[in-house]
Design brief:
The structure holds 2 protein chains of 2 kinds. Chain A has one domain. Helices cover 7% and strands 36% of the residues of chain A. Chain A is built from 2 helices and 10 strands; from the N terminus they run E-E-E-E-H-E-E-E-E-H-E-E. In chain A, the strands form 2 sheets. In chain A, strands 7-1-2-10-9-8 form a 6-stranded mixed beta sheet, with no helix packed on it. Chain A has a 4-stranded mixed beta sheet with strand order 3-5-6-4. Chain B contains 2 helices and 12 strands, in the order E-E-E-E-E-E-H-E-E-E-E-E-E-H. Chain B has a 6-stranded mixed beta sheet. In chain B, strands 1, 2, 9 and 10 form a 4-stranded antiparallel beta sheet that branches. In chain B, strands 11-12 form a two-stranded antiparallel ribbon. The model of chain B has no long low-confidence stretch (mean pLDDT 92). At the A-B interface, helix 2 of A face strand 4, strand 6 and helix 2 of B.
Chain lengths: 138, 142
């Protein structure tokens, strides 16, 4: 994905599965539907509204130390949301059938923003997020 | 009707689970911790094409525990009511058939969500009340 370019335009056909912009983590990564990611920017180039820290939004604790800091501009139902993420962003496609529902009634509101989890990927599992619910339930 | 139990250990505490509710005993398995969730249900595990909740019995039943559920060497996959769960444990003994009449009220053991105790394998085990546990977990997170 090139900087400041719509992520979805750089991805293979959606018929291959769900295209995701992947935010790195330790034992768990987060997948944002590429259709909801308007653009990605180097932090030094960002001139928009103050971004929110991804770790704060998803309750991930202390930020991962990384020299790579990006601002992702997300499109939600009602607004655009700028978030600051650390680490190397990747793009991937996962079959929608591999996105497994979470046992929400046991996990509570803290996973309200997650559509499901995908284990069938190389590397750490992916929590597939619904950007419209990010920050809700926290 | 309770006719067999599986004895499991968490840290130094042994307890019994109705064997008919145990689907599988796994070795050490890397479950995925989720941020911000309750300590009693700290994550999920991939099991047979599903994401099942991991329940930390030490936290859920009020056992004082120095051990992290992430370090436990085995996991029981159980079906408690409609829910399939993974229970990380330190040790599991073989299934022991029992006479239901030998289950008595808790006297020698104390465990939150226990509905009796029994002597097996030379141990006195509190029996986990899975219904009470699940009601508590759902109440806590719902």
């Amino acid at each position: 994905m090139s900087e400041s370019r719509a992520a979805s335009s750089a991805l293979p056909s959606p018929s291959d599965g769900l295209a995701l912009v992947i935010v790195p983590g330790g034992r768990l990564r987060w997948g944002l539907p590429s259709s909801a990611v308007l653009s990605a920017h180097a932090a030094s180039d960002w001139a928009g509204a103050a971004p929110l820290d991804w770790e704060d939004l998803v309750g991930a604790g202390a930020p991962t130390e990384s020299e790579q800091v990006r601002i992702l501009l997300l499109k939600t139902e009602h607004a655009e949301l700028a978030v600051r993420v650390r680490g190397a962003i990747e793009i991937g496609i996962v079959p929608e059938s591999e996105i497994l529902p979470l046992p929400r009634h046991l996990l509570g509101d803290e996973v309200a923003a997650a559509e499901g989890i995908c284990f069938a990927v190389a590397g750490a599992p992916l929590l597939v997020m619904n950007v419209n619910r990010i920050g809700h339930g926290r | 009707m309770l006719s067999a139990v599986v004895a499991l250990r968490i840290d130094a505490v042994w307890l019994g689970v109705d064997a008919s509710l145990v689907l599988e005993i796994l070795g050490e398995c890397p479950w995925v911790p989720l941020a911000g969730v309750a300590a009693a249900v700290p994550g999920v595990l991939a099991w047979r094409g599903r994401a099942i909740a991991v329940v930390d019995l030490a936290s859920a039943t009020g056992l004082s525990s120095a051990g992290s559920p992430a370090r436990r060497r085995r996991a029981l996959v159980v079906k408690f009511g409609p829910d399939t769960l993974a229970l990380p444990v330190d040790e599991v003994r073989e299934v022991q058939e029992i006479d239901e009449a030998s289950v008595r009220s808790n006297h020698a053991t104390r465990l939150r969500y226990s509905n009796g105790e029994i002597d097996v394998h030379g141990l006195t085990l509190p029996l986990l009340d899975s219904q009470a546990l699940m009601a508590s977990l759902i109440r806590e997170t719902g």
